Amino acid sequence: MVVPFGVPVDYFDPTFFNAQGLALRKKIAIPIVALLPNVKESFSSYPDEHLSDLAFNQKYGDDILAIYKIDDLDNIEEAKKRGEIEWR
Predict the structure, then answer these.
(1) What pTM did the predictor assign?
(2) Rounded distance, CA 81 to CA 74, Å?
């Protein structure tokens, strides 16, 4: 199986992502969201498509990330501090 690495976690179907092992989950996804909750509205003229990454994740991040098995929150917090992740 070939999967992309370093993409926003919502690129993956939650069932697929959550079924992967811890090591793979840590490698393949960045704990941010990039797609609207209704994916069909993404890449359209939907107004929230124009939000900054930070504002988008503040609005949708908690709800979407809650359905994904994100294991290492300490590393997420450290990455935010280093400026690698713009969220919250």
Answers:
(1) 0.75
(2) 11
